[in-house]
Amino acid sequence: MFKLGVVHLGLRNLNFTTKTATNVKCYTVSSVKMDKEILEKAKKLAGYKAVDDNLKSGLRVGIGSGSTIKYVVDRIKELGLDVICVPTSFQSTQLIVNAGLTLSDLSRTPELDITIDGADEVDSQLNCIKGGGACQLQEKIVAAASKRLVIVADFTKDSQAFGQQWKRGIPIEVVPMAYVPVMNKLSSMSLKPVLRMAVNKAGPVVSDNANFIIDAQFESISNVAELATKIKMIPGVVETGLFVNMASRAYFGQQDGTVKERTI
Ligand SMILES: O=C(CO)[C@H](O)[C@H](O)COP(=O)(O)O
Description:
By secondary structure, the chain is an alpha/beta fold. It has helices at 24-54, 69-79, 90-98, 136-144, 179-188, 224-232, and strands spanning 3-9, 12-18, 60-63, 84-87, 102-103, 112-117, 121-122, 128-129, 146-154, 170-174, 192-195, 212-217, 237-240, 242-243, 247-253, 259-263.
């Protein structure tokens, strides 16, 4: 008898069918490999095109976080663009430094021409859910200091409405001593909060800013801006992963080798 199974690949689920326990492993490995290759190609397409279309030497650029941003940094390096880079996390600082690009910060470069960043889900209005990598606080600060925010993502992030693609909820950064009352408040708002736990460490994920991350799962969101404000108003919440009316353009790498653009 055929069974339906699910493989967890990072933040994504892959469906697969299998006949017996013995061929599960075989089918799973090839599915994961295939999926990973397709996604990496899509991320690279988006990252490269965003750089080609939007960057030139002399610009002050916010560098987002996540796996897609790697391709943005690769392309900047490949083209030899002389840009000033402001990171959004420890990971993004490493990418900039390792690529030999000019590293700055918001103290020295408080106004940026553009930020390019990834996203976990992008809706039809270019509102984003971010923070799958727990970097949303610095990402939002850097994006807010930029004239434009451009999103780079693979096709799995492209949605009409939140929750169609991203099932892990809204990442919310909280001060550690406040996490229980914050979770209680979120529950009273019909959200399902889960404290994000670390993988290779006992206990919770600790952000670059020494805070905890709560993932607030939801059924549907009718008014994103209102929800973002309500969550932000809870004492102890430092920042939410809802980026409302911030992005002006998104590039989605497709499976067929093209890049879909959305601009508002
Ligand atoms: O918000 C983020 C990190 O906090 C990332 O930009 C987001 O999770 C997308 O990551 P990836 O490019 O790996 O899909």
